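[retry 2/3] HAD family phosphatase: previous attempt timed out, resubmitting with same input.
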Amino acid sequence: MNIVFDFGGVVFRWHPPSFLARLWPHRVADAAQGALVAAQFFENYGGDWGAFDQGLIDADTVIQRIALRTGWPAAEVAQVVAAVPDELQLQVDTAALIAELKQAGHRLFYLSNMPEPYADHLERAHPLQQWFESGVFSGRVKHSKPRAEIFQIASERFGLAPETCVFLDDHPANIEAAKTLGWQALLFTTAGQARLDLVQLMR
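[retry 2/3] HAD family phosphatase: success.
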């Protein structure tokens, strides 16, 4: 199988409500309140953050835009932006799944909404080229999920027809977009569930 992994929330830890609760205890009392603050900060990965994801603006610009839009001090917004790389910790269970799939002979790729500075960090911190044959970061191709363009770019880069790819992502909108374009796609919740879903798909 040709299996394509999302990164944030799948291969690497990414849960903005708890992230902000830890980082901004003076603003966020718990993960429930963190969800509300995260919706303001990241705008569901549209708006300012979406432009950052797509490599259309840099970190300084996204900081200034979020501060202007929300009224939060730019220094506090900058704290969040700077803390993201440390938040993207490898998910041990998913790493084990990747190793299993690779050992079994499956071809592995990635397709991630990721601003360029964070993509650079992940490449420095982890042996992505050993784990995956190829991959696409949104910040480098100027398109992001769930738009059709990034799926088309990925298909072309991987040299694979969409229907031969199985996409794992934790966002329903990205799963639906992939399916609409002819990809096989599975909503990721845990590595254990993904393993079961993949086994079922292989039957």
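[retry 2/3] HAD family phosphatase: The chain has a mean pLDDT of 96.
[retry 2/3] clearing retry counter.
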